[in-house]
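Fold this sequence, please.
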Amino acid sequence: MLRAPLIMASVAATAGIAGLVVFTRPGRSEGAVYGRRIAGTMLIALALLLGRFAWALSSWGAGS
């Protein structure tokens, strides 16, 4: 069973969805738009990083 990579991939997917939600929300001011862009970028980066590590863990056979 690949429990650790599956958990990491689930967290990556959740972060990716959260990043997309943050990106699609409108901002009321210029500062709010900037803050949402920064937060969305950080969440998407987290999703990409964790997704890559989950893939690496599963390909190495870790967690089995």
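Helices lie at 3-24, 30-60. The radius of gyration is 15 Å.
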